[in-house]
Design goal:
Distance between the termini: 42 Å
Helix content: 40-55%
Radius of gyration: 25 Å
Structural class: alpha+beta
Length: about 240
């Protein structure tokens, strides 16, 4: 398998086994993407390029044939506040469809996989989606920072050791369940405790040494081993 290589501008050259006509249809699709609440939607009228057919009608027939698979990824135009009767589909649904088509039609499997790769490339680089992602991340971080400030003001003692914070003690915010595991709980007070920096470092060193996952059970075990408080253990994930 050929290795991924970057050019001098840190860009990946995408090689696909598609015709110029097929690629041109992807450009048409890209110009008609709809972004709603940070989610991309593809008009069902522009699927003939993705599904490697020259006919919109044939593309519609393919979608209908796999409608049970795609049902949860389809959304009516009026729900996106768009005029028209044709539904829109989330790109993840198209990825699943292309994967299934490559299984059902091995002769064209390479082309379907190339189509999936190009679709991913277009969505990943769509300017409006990138901007909305940045806005959502900024808002998320702002909310999280406010929650952290409130918690630090509220707690005068380390929630594990019970020791009072003083001018020489760093207050750290710890995620009971790691943010990488449950990003939806990153700003949830139920998933956050205020502990001293020293204890925080000690916990993560113990987790790393033992190869444990950062979660509620691990923190509970750590607290028991050290004789620390379990008063924080009051929420169910």
């Amino acid at each position: 398998m050929e290795q991924i290589r970057l050019n001098e501008d840190n860009e990946v050259s995408l090689k696909v086994v598609l015709t110029k006509y097929q690629v041109s249809k992807f450009n048409s699709l890209a110009s008609n993407l709809v972004i709603k609440n940070g989610v991309a939607y593809v008009p069902s009228t522009e699927l003939h390029g993705v599904l490697l057919t020259r006919s919109r009608q044939r593309a519609k027939e393919i979608v209908n044939a796999y409608r049970n698979t795609l049902r949860i990824y389809l959304i009516e135009a009026h729900n996106l506040e768009i005029d028209g009767d044709d539904p829109y589909i989330r790109p993840i649904g198209l990825q699943i469809l292309l994967d299934q088509l490559s299984i059902d039609n091995p002769r064209r499997a390479t082309e379907y996989r190339a189509s999936a790769a190009l679709l991913t490339y277009i969505v990943a680089n769509y300017p409006q989606l990138a901007i909305e992602d940045q806005i959502r991340e900024r808002d998320r971080r702002t909310i999280q920072a406010q929650v952290w400030r409130n918690l630090k003001r509220r707690h005068t003692c380390c929630q594990l050791t019970g020791r009072l914070f003083n001018g020489e003690t760093e207050k750290h915010i710890h995620h009971i369940i790691a943010e990488s595991i449950r990003p939806d709980l990153a700003a949830s007070e139920n998933n956050l405790i205020v502990i001293s920096g020293e204890v925080h470092d000690e916990y993560h060193a113990w987790v790393t040494a033992g190869g444990y996952e950062v979660n509620k059970a691990t923190l509970r075990n750590f607290a028991r081993r050290k004789g620390y408080s379990l008063a924080w253990d009051n929420f169910s994930s």
